[in-house]
Amino acid sequence: GTFFCIAFLGELALRIATDKVHFLFSKAWRWNMFDLIVILAMLIEQTIRYVESETKWFPLGVTVLRTLRLANIVRSLHIVRFLSSFREFRLLVSLLQCSFAAMGWVLVLLMVMVYIAGVGITAGTFEHCHIDDTTPSRLCKHFGTLDRTLISLYKAIFGGILWGDLMDDLASLNIIYPAVFALFIAVVLIGL
């Protein structure tokens, strides 16, 4: 805290020495006043901390300290002001904001694909898991119900489980299921 207080105070002193009267009357006078208020609040906080540590008793109490600590949060706007002057940074932030809608639709498409593949695989494994008792338990563990199938597909996509192991489990049913599963993994991992 003390280091930043000294650094910001030094920066403010240099700006006042450089701008002189224009510090209060330039286009950025609001930011300059904001910086001045934040730095004064930092100085007051540092003074209070010093007095409190020396006397072990402080009449203003914790409420004032909490109020002044709020200035530390507001102080982060100083950095935003500094970064907003960079054209590339503003462009990057703008592009991120514009891509949120597209990312949302990609996630919806992913969920729909997982659901369709899950219903298809569960339909194929349902009779083997619930009618035939000789079906391997791993197959029923991963694909016995729709919720288990959806969780297994998400794990396969995001690396929670090896998709090759799941494909081996599906190979005990029919050659079509591993092929459909491999196509699903290829489309999700490469296409999206």
Keywords:
192 residues; 9 helices; mainly alpha
Account of the protein in words:
- It is elongated, with a radius of gyration of 31 Å.
- α1 (2-19) packs antiparallel against α3 (29-55).
- It has 192 residues and is an all-alpha fold.
- The chain is 83% helix and 0% strand.
- The longest helix is centred in the middle third of the chain and has 44 residues, at 87-130.
- It has helices at 2-19, 22-25, 29-55, 61-83, 87-130, 137-143, 146-158, 163-170, 176-191.
- The model has no long low-confidence stretch (mean pLDDT 79).
Approximately what portion of the residues adopt beta-strand conformation? under 5%
The number of E-state strands comes to 0
Secondary-structure element order, N to C: HHHHHHHHH
What summary fits the major beta sheet? none
Helical coverage, percent range: over 70%
Give me the Rg, rounded: 31 Å
C-alpha geometry: elongated
The end-to-end distance, rounded to whole angstroms, is 45 Å
Structural class: mainly alpha
Provide mean pLDDT, rounded.
79
Oligomer state of the chains in this structure: single chain
Helix count equals 9
- Stretches where pLDDT is under 50 for at least 5 consecutive residues are none
